[in-house]
Amino acid sequence: MHILIFETTHFEAAYPLIRLFDVPGNQISIFCEEQTSRQLQWLLHDDASRFQWTIQSPGTSRRHFIGQLKQYIQTRQVDWLWLNTVSDNFILFAGLRKQLPALRMTVTLHALRSYIAPPLSLNLRRVVRVWGKKKMRARFTEYNVLSPLLLPFAQQHLPLTTIHTVPGGIFEEEKYSPAPAGLLRLVVPGSVDIRRRDYGFIYQLLQQAELAGLRLHISLAGGPGKGGTEWISRFRRFRGEYAQISCFEEHVEQPQFDKLIREAQFILHPSVLDTVLEDGAAESYGSTVYSGNFSDAIRHARPLLVPATLPVDPFIQSSVISYTDCAGLLDLLIQLHEHPRQAERYQQWALEVSRLFTAEAIRPRFPLLFSGITG
Which uninterrupted H or E stretch holds 268? Predict the structure, then answer.
């Protein structure tokens, strides 16, 4: 079977697909942007050369790249097109679906309300995008969302379609690195983006840890996103004898990103609950959008520290530690500092959860996608 994976920005969610479909008898082609290809090829290491890559160069428009995609499909025997991210040119993808009616196509949705019910706007660009999404909804019948938590909303608003829940993270035990002992280290993966995380909470945690004399290091594993430049500047001005923070003013490449997670014992995810990500649509974490930090936790087998109000996928519940406020989290961190064996237990639970997300464990859960694929 020849599977073509189209990806622009969510390379971390494309990687599991590649691994899940990468078995004898399958051919995999990948269409992606230059930066995405760089991250994916680092993750794949020597295996990257076994796949057919078509990379959108910086000077090529998305419209032209989609045209290349269509031509590639028409001149090769492609059995399945998996659109893992569609963030623009929706009308062209709707047209592609109409022009290639016999080809199986699956779309991964990342922000459900933006796709399903984008608000009306007088902005011409927004009007075109909303119209394109409407055309896609009328023509596509197979989707994927990254967590079962998103399934109720998707099923309610996309009736008469097939919706899968292939996760955005995969665990490869041969790449697992146990958490180091010593200084208590937390990592916050992802760009510094106020639409996604509460950085005021992180600053408050630093201040309270300093006052409590808790030796703590927090790494922000990402460059500036929306509102990130101001927060990075503020964090750089923070000077503590006990509590410290490191951050980056530019994009963090995958090798450095993975290194920062491996060096940490816990992933800190101070998620916001309600946000606006695309086209003015109000999204809710755990209902219409899902954080990639959960996928990071799966891939690296690290426990997660999250707000108690954040919905959590039942599959990973035992590797999640919830806090109600900053003082409660600080008390927990002090306990972990004073009782390292407790931290080790959390890390063992996280490893057991990640083992539920190996390719061999995931495939049997999705027979419509991976029937007959054993790896």
Answer: strand 266-268
State the residue for tokens 């596509």. 140
Q: How confident is the model at residue 371 (pLDDT cuts 50, 70, 90)?
A: confident
Does residue 293 lie within any of the structural domains? yes
**Domain shared by 7 and 152, yes or no:** yes
- The lowest-confidence range among 56-60, 210-214, 226-230, 231-235 is 56-60
Q: What total of structural domains would you count in the chain?
A: 2
Strand, coil or helix: 86: coil
Spell out the residues 6+ positions from residue 371 whose beta carbon is closer than 8 angstroms to its own.
Answer: none
Residues in a beta bridge with 316:
none
The closest of 341, 267, 248, 278 to 110, measured between CA atoms, is 278
Residue 375 forms part of a structural domain:
no
Instruction: Tally Cβ neighbours within 10 Å of residue 138.
Output: 11
Widest CA span in the chain? 65
Residue 240's alpha-carbon distances to 201, 226, 304, in angstroms, are 17, 26, 24
SS3 state at 61:
coil
Among residues 66, 68, 53, which one has the least CA distance to residue 136? 66
Rounded distance, CA 245 to CA 218, Å?
Answer: 5
Q: Looking at the structure, do residues 263 and 338 belong to the same domain, yes or no?
A: yes
Domain that holds residue 283: 173-356
**Is 196 found in the same domain as 185?**
yes
Q: Is the pTM of this model over 0.85?
A: yes
Cβ count near 98 (within 10 Å): 11
